[in-house]
Specification:
By secondary structure, this protein is α/β, with parallel strands linked by helices. The chain has one domain: TIM Barrel (Alpha-Beta Barrel), CATH 3.20.20. The chain has a seven-stranded parallel beta sheet, sandwiched between helices.
Length: about 325
Amino acid sequence: MIDRDKRHPEKIKKPFNPIKRKPEWIRSKIVDSQIFFQTKQVVNQNNLVTVCQEANCPNITECWSKKHATFMIMGDTCTRACAFCDVKTGKPADLDIYEPAKIAKAVRNLNLKHVVITSVDRDDLEDGGSEHFYNVVKATRNKNPKTSIEVLTPDFLRKGDAYKKVLEADLDVFNHNIETVPRLYATVRPGARYFASLELLKNAKKFNQKVFTKSGIMVGLGEQKEEVYQVMDDLRSAEVDFITIGQYLQPSPKHHPLHRYYHPDEFKEFELIAKTKGFLLVSSSPLTRSSYHADEDFRKLQDARNKQLECRPHQ
């Protein structure tokens, strides 16, 4: 007897993972604000891409109403297909040589005190897009000298020392998300390598000691708490200053299934444990995202480092 699926491969069903109902503690803040629409207007007028929109961030109304936006450079199409991510995958377009000037102008128009610049993965580029990152940061700094700049970069896997070009720009925070525990990488983040991401964070700190390093993890993907604690230890071994821990929210039935929702008390538990491990700053809550409250967190990082320096014995 012939297997119908083998005879008609197009009829093979794709994974369908029903989305679990959200608990009462996961509710986006609805803000009726003119500032939200002003932010949207600046983004649209400059033909810019934001991770807030592309990744369907649950905090977009709150952040845009405070003139906070995370700009996503190098297009809206990623060369990878991570099972948790809602950004589209495919063949990216050519780089926009005017993008650095557009980002710099938007930052000035929004009068941002702190800006986060991220990107899609660009494995198609020889340097993974590090030169373009550098150009965007430099243009932004030149036009906005008082604005602190945070980058959230890809892993630059198999791109050698390309990451160093990003760190040569005048930036304040270097962020690269570890995303999940190593056991789940094959299914959640198949195009990446856990220890390569750790090495990137470790090397970034070595290359530029003045830059704050930052990384984030999602929970609810099927990890065990003990595995999260191990990730904390690994990040501290890489001298990461700031860790963010947030709830995974499954974008659609075709994405990686949500294992469970963590209670706010469990996020508090993660926060306390992470602090005992020596992070300068910890942000842990259901709606925590890499760029959520990034401006306020940067000031807290500065204060924490200053206090740390004050506590060191004088030579």
